[in-house]
């Protein structure tokens, strides 16, 4: 009896964790759906994929790539040259591998790899994490068979053959962590109100400066507790700021970094943080109300577009970074904590946006495409 052909996939996406982690989730889903399949990750020489992908146990091939410039300059010429170099490397690689499918999740490296696939007639799909698509996916959308979306509004900014709203894959631990276990992890009482503040892996300076002012006002709410993930560079200064305002240390948990984010999300009643797509996917699958402060230097200001999608649905409030101070944040935090019904309604709205089956939806779409041949 003839054995079925082993599936081969090339996955590409890089630069930041926002492109890499969804790619790794898709790789995990493919491995579960197609046991024994071969997966090769193609990344750049300088992005975070150089360390993250090998740790995930996937073979990594590196090609040249550089972000495209919008203005005519020597940097723009160099970027075009490196992209062309990367395209030639990708063409050579894909001719040798002949994968069944190429999957791109954005970032500079995805452009030459997915472009090469479409030039060679190899089926290709892309996943767009943000409400405002990046330049790579905008350039590729019309060439690939399918664009999978996290935010529905991204479709109107893409000239795509076909789009489908799948959501963004979220780790199982995020969805299954229990509230009581989260409270025990931080040694917090079960009945108090917990605020989680997180500004990304390196922290958010303006948010770190604002929260001690908020903490001072929390004295009027004796059952309010604060978990603050500062980012490694900011730990000492944030600790000093909390001491200066006299925050009761029994109601405060300060960490430079948190690997067990699922425990913090399970424990909290209100989350304050940036508006990266992966973080918002986690908030929505858990149904958490939030105050979002979009990172102002994100490409195409995509974090503000992400945040507005939650605000428009009633799931979040937003303060733009330039307007964030302790004085602007404090009244909003107190208002929400004093109105449990509002927090509940925001959480329910967030839950309607969540896509807990995002990974299954993505793999189903890929499976249908492969079956069509």
UniProtKB/TrEMBL annotation:
The name this protein goes by in its record: UDP-N-acetylglucosamine--N-acetylmuramyl-(pentapeptide) pyrophosphoryl-undecaprenol N-acetylglucosamine transferase
InterPro entries to which the protein is assigned, alphabetical: GlcNAc_MurG, Glyco_trans_28_C, GlycoTrans_28_N
Enzyme class: transferase
Any single biological process term in GO: peptidoglycan biosynthetic process
EC numbers on record: 2.4.1.227
Transmembrane domains' residue ranges: 101-126
Domain of life: Bacteria
Organism: Heliophilum fasciatum
Annotated PANTHER family: GLYCOSYLTRANSFERASE, UDP-N-ACETYLGLUCOSAMINE--N-ACETYLMURAMYL-(PENTAPEPTIDE) PYROPHOSPHORYL-UNDECAPRENOL N-ACETYLGLUCOSAMINE TRANSFERASE 1
Reactions listed under catalytic activity: di-trans,octa-cis-undecaprenyl diphospho-N-acetyl-alpha-D-muramoyl-L-alanyl-D-glutamyl-meso-2,6-diaminopimeloyl-D-alanyl-D-alanine + UDP-N-acetyl-alpha-D-glucosamine = di-trans,octa-cis-undecaprenyl diphospho-[N-acetyl-alpha-D-glucosaminyl-(1->4)]-N-acetyl-alpha-D-muramoyl-L-alanyl-D-glutamyl-meso-2,6-diaminopimeloyl-D-alanyl-D-alanine + UDP + H(+)
């Amino acid at each position: 009896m003839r054995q079925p052909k082993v599936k081969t996939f090339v996955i590409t996406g890089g630069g930041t964790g926002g492109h890499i982690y969804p790619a790794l989730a898709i790789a995990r889903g493919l491995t579960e759906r197609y046991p024994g399949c071969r997966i090769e990750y193609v990344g750049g020489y300088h992005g975070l994929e150089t360390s993250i992908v090998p740790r995930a146990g996937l073979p990594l091939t590196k090609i040249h790539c550089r972000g495209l410039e919008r203005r005519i300059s020597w940097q723009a010429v160099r970027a075009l040259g490196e992209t062309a170099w990367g395209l030639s490397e990708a063409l050579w690689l894909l001719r040798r591998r002949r994968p069944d499918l190429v999957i791109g999740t954005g970032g500079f490296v995805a452009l030459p790899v997915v472009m090469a696939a479409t030039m060679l007639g190899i089926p290709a799909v892309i996943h767009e994490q943000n409400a405002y698509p990046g330049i790579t996916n905008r350039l590729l959308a019309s060439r690939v068979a399918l664009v999978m979306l996290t935010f529905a509004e991204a479709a109107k900014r893409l000239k795509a053959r076909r789009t489908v709203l799948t959501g963004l894959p979220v780790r199982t631990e995020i969805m299954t962590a229990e509230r009581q276990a989260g409270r025990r992890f931080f040694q917090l009482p079960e009945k108090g109100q917990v605020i989680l503040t997180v500004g990304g892996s390196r922290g958010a300076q303006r948010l770190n400066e604002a929260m001690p002012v908020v903490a001072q006002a929390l004295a009027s709410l004796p059952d309010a507790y604060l978990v603050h993930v500062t980012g490694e560079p900011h730990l000492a200064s944030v600790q000093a700021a909390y001491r200066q305002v006299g925050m009761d240390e029994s109601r405060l948990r300060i960490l430079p970094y948190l690997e067990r984010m699922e425990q913090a999300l399970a424990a909290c009643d209100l989350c304050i943080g940036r508006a990266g797509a992966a973080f918002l996917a986690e908030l929505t699958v858990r149904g958490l109300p939030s105050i979002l402060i979009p990172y102002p230097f994100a490409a195409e200001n995509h974090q503000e577009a992400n945040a507005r999608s939650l605000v428009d649905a009633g799931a979040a409030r937003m303060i733009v970074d330039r307007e964030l101070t302790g004085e602007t944040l404090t009244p909003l935090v107190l208002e929400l904590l004093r109105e449990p019904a509002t927090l509940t309604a925001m959480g329910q709205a967030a839950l309607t946006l969540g896509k807990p089956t995002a990974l299954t939806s993505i793999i189903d779409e890929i499976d249908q495409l492969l079956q069509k041949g």
